[in-house]
Amino acid sequence: MSRKIIEEKFKASVANNSPTDWFHEVYRLAAEGTMEVPWDDKSANPWLVSWLKRNPLKPKTKTLDVACGLGDNAEFLASLGLDVSAADLSPQAITMAKERFPESSIEYEVADFFTPPSHFLGAFDFVSEVYTLQAVPDSHRLQLLQGIASCVAPNGLLLIVARHRPCGSPKKTTPPFALEKEFIDEVLKLGFKRESWEEVVDAYEDTPIYRLIASYRRN
Ligand SMILES: C[S@@+](CC[C@H](N)C(=O)[O-])C[C@H]1O[C@@H](n2cnc3c(N)ncnc32)[C@H](O)[C@@H]1O
After folding, report:
1. Is the CB of residue 101 below 6 angstroms from any atom belonging to ligand 1?
2. What residues contact residue 10 under an 8 Å CB cut-off, 6+ apart?
3. Contact 134 CB / ligand 1 (< 6 Å)
4. According to the 3-state scheme, what is the secondary structure of 84-99?
């Protein structure tokens, strides 16, 4: 059911020349209790968790959780002792994150990563992006990648967790999209070097979902 609503909201949003209006609609319906937030797993993303187990960061690393949604990934990052900021486009998502984690040490704020606020620019030694690039249409994805990358400090690390589209597999017309390696590697043109690249397969209702977890170091 929520899949059908998402598709309708996404198409209406794009017809209205907005790649992101539909997120506001999803959170509005969730706040009314009409629909669950489809990406709300009520726990941190398992690929983010396993990557950080294998690639631990120093305590107090200045960290940004991009498009934090309801805050589970951000709270996980804070539980590791990192100094976490978290932001999302949707004021409703930020309200819900603060309600979900009333004791949080995290500063949750509203921000649009197409044009990140000036206090984010080059300000973070670790920037974690989970499932946001895959949620915007092709037409706006590069601008979003550039905005996210601009938040990484010199020598800082950008982690991208996203659906991956193996060569030749069909392209979707509604989110979540699957990103091609060539797209993710656009970050190399922004002054980053690739540090790691992992391709994994998730099974969802017996359908394989290809994902990648990639990290890039800013020069
Ligand atoms: C698929 S959800 C993923 C949320 C969270 N990262 C997670 O893994 O649960 C995508 C999120 O990106 C946010 N978003 C989309 N475009 C954005 C933008 N330009 N700036 C900030 N947040 C954005 C949406 O509001 C939504 O919360």
Report:
1. no
2. 22, 174, 175
3. no
4. EEEEECCHHHHHHHHH
Taking the whole predicted model, whether its pTM rises above 0.85 is answered as: yes
The tens digit of pLDDT for each residue in 88-142 reads 999 999 999 999 999 999 999 999 999 999 999 999 999 999 999 999 999 999 9
Domains of the chain: 41-218 (3.40.50.150)
Does ligand 1 come within 6 angstroms of the Cβ of 21? no
Which structure tokens are listed for 204? 């969802």
- Cα separation, 135 vs 7, in Å, equals 12
- 145-156 pLDDT, tens digit per residue, is 999 999 999 999
Retrieve residue 101's tokens: 């984690």
